[in-house]
Amino acid sequence: MECLLPDDPVLRDLFRRVLSDLVVPNSPLGFITIWQNRNRTAEDIKMTTHAEEGTAALDTTFLETTIYHNRVFQSYAIDNLAYLVPIDEEEEERLHIMHNVFRMIFEGRLIFAPIDRPRRILDLGHGTGSWALEVAELHGRCEVIGIDICPTMQPQEMPANLYLQVDDVNRRFSFNPHHFDLVQSRMMAGAVHTNRWAQYMRDMLRVTRPGGWCQMIELYHNFQSDNGTLTPDHALSQWSARYIESMEGLKDLRAATRLPNLMREAGFVDVESRMIPLPTCAWSSEQRDSEIGAANRENVQRLLNTLAIFPFTERLNIPIQDVHLLIAQARLEADNPAFKVS
């Protein structure tokens, strides 16, 4: 697994200082970091509405679920091929783990751009709402809006300046032009349709104010070994190949490698990108990387099942027993320090 940083120590040091010396020009900027259903009703969900954004009451269609191989999925997401990942408590726990891994990678920095007093921030695909909630608490006078296709994983308690809304990012954004100081898009390759990416970028640009920023974080799920010992015959390599195959024509799982060009083509300026290896376990001799790998281990072990269970069985028609076997073998390899997998 690789978050699209060259190994150049100078670039790595620049990243760790989070480019705090960048100057904001008068056009939108892009900072790209490449790198449960609980049977709740519409009344239970704290869907905050905002008159300025023209939001409406929650459509209960978004609460309907379906089960595949003992995992809970959102019916709307499956029916529209919008998001093929479970939305159950197990997945919510994994997303919290992954958020903590990102906090370690970015040394607790939630916003990479030099923004002191943001007024409005948009989080695309807020998931559990962890990032949006922390940003809202950090910037109490800032209006933080998050949108996601799934309403069931949001925090039970939210600060007054946090507004979580239900929407499909494959639709055109309904927000006013030049509205946000910062727009974040994190881990959206599994949600944005392949033919939607160019317009998705233009939508982000359109709702970002002049001089505002966008930051994007994506994983490229192409497992590689630091020492070259992982071959195409290994289960992890087969998992990566089949995952990409299962999403062919539907989701662009290589989007992480194309984000800089996509942003520039949309009209962003001063685009910065970094590729960051993300260890699958604590194999690194560097203390910081080893700690990140240790924290990421549980995320990877769960991710190998979560991402694969529906597309492998329903789109590639692989028998569930074979899927479980591949996942079990891939988990062993991801957890083996000898492979030095990222």
TrEMBL record:
Stored Gene3D superfamilies: Vaccinia Virus protein VP39 (3.40.50.150)
GO biological process: methylation
Keyword terms, alphabetized: Methyltransferase, Transferase
GO molecular function, one term: methyltransferase activity
InterPro entries given in the database record: Methyltransf_25, SAM-dependent_MTases_sf
Domain Methyltransferase span(s) in chain numbering: 121-212
Name by which UniProt lists this protein: S-adenosyl-L-methionine-dependent methyltransferase
Organism field: Hyaloscypha variabilis (strain UAMH 11265 / GT02V1 / F)
Lineage start: Eukaryota, Fungi, Dikarya, Ascomycota, Pezizomycotina
